[in-house]
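Sample 1 of the test manifest.
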Amino acid sequence: MQLGMIGLGRMGADMVRRLTKGGQQCIVYDVQPAAVERLEQEGVTGASSLEDLVAQLDKPRAVWLMVPAAVVDGTLEKLVPLLEPGDVVIDGGNSYYHDDIRRGTELAVRKLHYVDVGTSGGVAGRERGYCLMIGGEAEIVKRLEPIFSTLAPGAAAAPATPGRTADKSTAEQGFLHCGPLGAGHFVKMVHNGIEYGLMAAYAEGLNVLRHADAGKHARDADAETSPLRRPEFYQYDLNLADIAEVWRRGSVIGSWLLDLIAGSLVSDADLKNYAGRVSDSGEGRWTVAAAIDEGVPTPVLSAALFERFSSRGEADFANRVMSAMRHDFGGHVEKPAAPSGSQQG
Amino acid sequence: MQLGMIGLGRMGADMVRRLTKGGQQCIVYDVQPAAVERLEQEGVTGASSLEDLVAQLDKPRAVWLMVPAAVVDGTLEKLVPLLEPGDVVIDGGNSYYHDDIRRGTELAVRKLHYVDVGTSGGVAGRERGYCLMIGGEAEIVKRLEPIFSTLAPGAAAAPATPGRTADKSTAEQGFLHCGPLGAGHFVKMVHNGIEYGLMAAYAEGLNVLRHADAGKHARDADAETSPLRRPEFYQYDLNLADIAEVWRRGSVIGSWLLDLIAGSLVSDADLKNYAGRVSDSGEGRWTVAAAIDEGVPTPVLSAALFERFSSRGEADFANRVMSAMRHDFGGHVEKPAAPSGSQQG
Amino acid sequence: MQLGMIGLGRMGADMVRRLTKGGQQCIVYDVQPAAVERLEQEGVTGASSLEDLVAQLDKPRAVWLMVPAAVVDGTLEKLVPLLEPGDVVIDGGNSYYHDDIRRGTELAVRKLHYVDVGTSGGVAGRERGYCLMIGGEAEIVKRLEPIFSTLAPGAAAAPATPGRTADKSTAEQGFLHCGPLGAGHFVKMVHNGIEYGLMAAYAEGLNVLRHADAGKHARDADAETSPLRRPEFYQYDLNLADIAEVWRRGSVIGSWLLDLIAGSLVSDADLKNYAGRVSDSGEGRWTVAAAIDEGVPTPVLSAALFERFSSRGEADFANRVMSAMRHDFGGHVEKPAAPSGSQQG
Amino acid sequence: MQLGMIGLGRMGADMVRRLTKGGQQCIVYDVQPAAVERLEQEGVTGASSLEDLVAQLDKPRAVWLMVPAAVVDGTLEKLVPLLEPGDVVIDGGNSYYHDDIRRGTELAVRKLHYVDVGTSGGVAGRERGYCLMIGGEAEIVKRLEPIFSTLAPGAAAAPATPGRTADKSTAEQGFLHCGPLGAGHFVKMVHNGIEYGLMAAYAEGLNVLRHADAGKHARDADAETSPLRRPEFYQYDLNLADIAEVWRRGSVIGSWLLDLIAGSLVSDADLKNYAGRVSDSGEGRWTVAAAIDEGVPTPVLSAALFERFSSRGEADFANRVMSAMRHDFGGHVEKPAAPSGSQQG
């Protein structure tokens, strides 16, 4: 099947490669001509402009946007006037599902179809395949199945779930029509919310392991410092790389994220390459916001989100408020940070 | 290699089966004669008493306890007098690592060796192998390697971690000597702490998905109820079984726990078989307690732990205190629970 | 000064009484004629309709809405056509500040002024006075000062803050012009978010005190139950009413909320009058949503919010997911709830 | 009544002053002779050694320790041999209640009595009085009542709780016999746990208010940064000092802590005097540990505790783990901190 791809960054280019390798035909465009050229050199058909892209596509056209969420609307503004009734626009990026509903409704007026696809897989997706969560009209999603099934990992990527009837849905192939407009990005949003929670759980646990030697370090014995009552219980020097590795086999907490952690720790046991300022790109926030709208408690997902905010210094003023209170009721004076070098983690 | 196994419950019996199948020789004992008989019918050598078990073992003996944490001390009281210098006791259950340190120190006086083994794998372990986190003296752990390597899943159970040198440790085979006395159960404790966090992350996310139809249900419009401002954004009827299934392939949140969730939802999409009273067996508590001792923040792991307490009604009095305050400052009267049937999740 | 009051519920009627007693003139209206009659019997001037109310007010009019957030827009729809340029509408209820901005902008087109007032004080406000957080145009807020200063508690209600220059703002009198449209309800929103956190802190602490006798109760000793290792440390029968009372004098945690708790516990030490289903009326949700928009971590405020959701059973499905996982990996079967009577709180 | 006071730091010296002013007779000692001299100059009787202190006291003696928790045992080691049956030792510091039980049991062997007193009030206590939470034998506590009632604020310090019978207990005077050995420090421990939660609630809320201008600051529009969707809703420049002040009168969140915040913000609106490294001195940790032992959920109290740990950099390694995962699955590169100056809070 033929597909136009707009946006040839990290994700977009690799998806084109996987589609091409899987026998689909891609016409590709990017605002950066070099990105187009790179794929042309691999035998993919490039387009020099949105007009050129649209002109090269058979009707009804299928155009996949793989651009940053912030530029989707700008791209649509230029693209939509070039399209004709029956054409399909697919947003495969990380759009907020509220935007999908708005955009899909606007496009429907022009008899254009809109499909939102939450795409998970990251840099490994080219080889492993992409997990696709899809929202939109059922018949349009059906029409695009050759694209989805080529991008997806396929059923063989995981053992069958016991009791599951294989032909019930396409979920086992790694792509799923979740519901109407926005449903794909809604499910992807929650997927990422869960991802935040999983990541934080591993990170916190590893931090506890890393400080299992706390009893070896003298702690100040002043009124500002809570003493470690039983230092004899914190005398372990644990090898986190080995521990992450051993958990990869047979344990209840095995996962792809754990595989990645094990890899990171092999090469950089102290993770010195990172400062620990953890970004968030929106989905975690939207997940908690949705939970609040629904009245559903998400203490773990929100704690994970807030840890990221705090890692970037956003709790600073709140912390100063607390220090000010301690000073004012108890005469407590802030302790300076431990001199660098004595800090271990 | 020869091993005495005490405790033939769910875990112990399956471990004996895996050991036997892997060519190790087990002599087995349980306070329930029927449990011993069951394994004898499978060709395993049974013992009629602790004395009988000890008598049948070659010296230096290796005896593995696979009994509830609460009865380890009672079992040791009877077992230890029967042993001789050089013998090894292995505690493979879910003991608190503080107890390992105490017990190991006591046994050392009698020139007995103590090895603590955190064992993960659950009911699937017999086939998949068990992930073993081990604490104790290095030479004793080395001596027991045939047992550990037979119980463990083996290197083939997961793809190699890129950059890792295979012969660096036994971690890749699924068992690891983590450190001195207690280190095995310390690592297993944190493993379970992480497990709580992972489980809660999935559970909360699925709950958000389940309530994605919140806009379809009329909400009361009174001063006690926060209205849903934008019901049009919560109109989705999502198929959680399909969503869990699609996430199993190619997504960032794939894991063994997710595999289990996918299986549960196939047969019982509403999980009606469960009341949602979630037990905890200690390790999650101990992980947070260790984090507090170390001064390490674990907001996600503790939120996950507290959700379990709340699921069992342990927040009730606190909730009543809040309702009482609301009544007293605002005249707010508690709303009764929605009639059963209108409740959806 | 003259004021029209629409909405004579709990709050509105008491505010009219305080205004009248303080020498201001109120014309009052409510959709329930009985509510109007009640105040007329106390000597207040009633109105039989919105038209009547508007007709009785001198120009430029000042009309205060004290109605549920959900009916503000409906009320404005009827009221606004009756007003004339220069008139002021005050929303003193619990509106979302987004709505203030929208409404104020709409009213400005008709040369009407809109003032949003976050009002705290509850049922005690009639005597103690109301804390007023105000948003809108400075000159209009200034014009209404006689109303605000009569409703507010006045400077004498609390000792002067050391170092504060008395004439800097009206804050010391208990009312404050916080900023432009919406600023009043924004500040009130965060006020309530803080309130949730404060309430939860007391409630959780009292719950810990209440269970200080945990060591007296036998706990099951099975694999599903974490044993209490040191029952000797949990042998206290604490009198919560006395403890709340003693904290009211000289302690760091004294507060008006604590005063209320002390009162509740006097008459009903077990708070049997409450089921513990804690409502939330929106501001706590909006506070956390604002924090997420701002990228500011609010782990305490969100934990407090989610406790309320959980108190109403909204975690149920998530809990069932966790029980299902425990069953599937460990063969764990849910324990039934303790028989009623053995439950202590 | 006569009392020996050991430990003349911030708290001890002020308590002596309040006792003396209230007509009680103090004999005082401190390891720093200068501290003794200071009080001698105010007319208090000093002692040059523990022996001297004990010699000057009438039998049965009452000796109050007001020393850091870490040196209580060392002091007792020297003091106890000097005492005689019937004498009473009072620990008024911040001891862990486990230690009270141990110490009281040891002293009982020598027929000495031990009373634990949790003391709240801070630097303001000299004037306001101290809130005293007391554990120990009833008759001994009774014997010390003149001391307690002089230190306590007295009934007039707060309005009577409606419905409360005045003579029911001493709670209304600001001191309370809570229960047997350790009960005083147990209640004080939870008091401080609550204090952490209250402080965090205010601090988080003020942080949300401080960032109410988030819409005025351009945010990066890249894949690492979640955009602020509605900047028009975050255009407020709020005066936190005025807001804290207005909340002091009539609002639901009025408290002594709020009074302190209002004072801090008057003189230093940005709290530039603080770095935001918030210490914790043990009670918050012990409260959460007790909650875990009891199986009582304390998500708010623990979130408040963990914020303090994080404020001191203790989440750093966990944050690096998260950044490493983001890099490995998504190719995400950490964003550097914003240049100083652009940072606002």
